[in-house]
Design a protein that fits this description.
The chain is 27% helix and 25% strand. It is built from 11 helices and 18 strands. By secondary structure, the protein is an alpha/beta fold. The termini are far apart. The strands form 4 sheets. It has a 7-stranded mixed sheet with strand order 3-2-1-4-7-6-10. The protein has a 6-stranded mixed sheet with strand order 14-13-12-17-18-16, with no helix packed on it.
Length: 309
């Protein structure tokens, strides 16, 4: 048994890149990964990846029994990520650390980034919902219950059908898990250039801390590197890339141990050309709809709670 366990409930069809994601999870064999899913495992057997048959109805029942709240849609699980240590307590009790992740990710050599010193000195590694690791203590597993702002409790947040980004948000009201932990005196480690969280509004790849150049990724020897099309000297090892809203990526590589990730898909290692990138970059119509939908949701959420948050 390893020291770290990562919990990932996932319902419905897996992302197109799932076979590659699983392979990079497998290579990080110092972590045990638990995927609770209603999707059949047809991607092979992995020593450190456990597929647990679980439906959305099952997790709704578990949430009702342990927390007392109701959940109506799968996307709302984003707000429940900080509760996984409490909800799935029986699965994680023999581990020193627990965490949660998404599956639209390709992982690099996480051992390099989750050093013993970091794990010892910080109570939480990384502050975003697509990958976070926490110390396995009762106080941290249940810290989500500490939320209290102007007579609003975690019950209000979790019962709402709207998204509060509870798994990430700091902000002045500390309505997210990171703010709660910091208020409790816990230290959070987060250097955002250690991983690539891609901008959703573009077809091409732009990590959100870098200027707009044509970036791509190289996976080799169990490591993941950020590269630049126009600067062959630019190479940066990273912990992972989050391929959020990159649903058109095609898996065109024959090897899952070495490959390129470019905006048009996963390729075997070769010379990278402009043809692997999109000429029409900004997803204008999609992004306008995306932002409008989010604004409407935020407005309804605030109205439901009777104030502007």
């Amino acid at each position: 048994m390893n020291k770290i366990v990562i919990i990932c409930p996932y319902f419905g069809k897996f992302p197109s890149n799932i076979s590659i994601t699983l392979e990079t999870m497998k290579k990080n064999n110092f972590i045990d990964w638990y995927i609770f899913t209603d999707t059949e495992n047809c991607y092979g057997n992995y020593e450190n990846i456990k597929f647990i048959k679980f439906s959305f109805s099952d997790i709704k029942k578990l949430i009702k029994e342990k927390i007392g709240t109701s959940i109506d849609n799968i996307y709302k699980l984003c707000d429940y990520k900080p509760t996984y240590g409490y909800l799935f307590e029986e699965y994680i009790m023999n581990y020193e650390y627990w965490g949660y992740c998404d599956l639209d990710i390709v992982f690099g050599d996480l051992l390099k980034f989750f050093s013993i010193n970091k794990l010892r000195d910080y109570s939480k590694i990384y502050d975003l919902g697509h990958l976070s690791i926490l110390k396995n203590t009762r106080e941290i597993r249940e810290c989500f219950k500490k939320f209290n702002y102007k007579n609003k409790t975690y019950i209000d947040i979790l019962n709402s059908k709207y998204i509060f980004v509870f798994d990430e948000t700091y902000d002045k009201n500390h309505r997210g898990i990171n703010g709660i932990l910091e208020d409790m005196g816990y230290k959070i480690y987060n250097i955002r250039n250690e991983y690539a969280d891609l901008e959703v509004k573009y077809n091409n790849f732009y990590p959100n801390y870098l200027k707009k150049y044509k970036y791509y990724f190289l996976y080799t020897n169990n490591k993941l590197y950020l590269r630049n099309l126009y600067n062959s000297n630019y190479i940066k090892e990273i912990a992972y890339v989050h391929l959020q809203q990159k649903k058109n990526l095609k898996v065109l590589c024959n090897k899952k141990s070495e490959f390129l990730i470019v905006p048009k898909g996963f390729y075997d290692i070769q010379n990278v050309t402009k043809n692997m990138f999109y000429k029409i970059d900004f997803k204008a119509i999609w992004y306008i709809k995306f932002r409008l939908k989010r604004k409407i949701s935020n407005y309804k959420r605030n109205k439901e709670l009777g104030e502007r948050w």
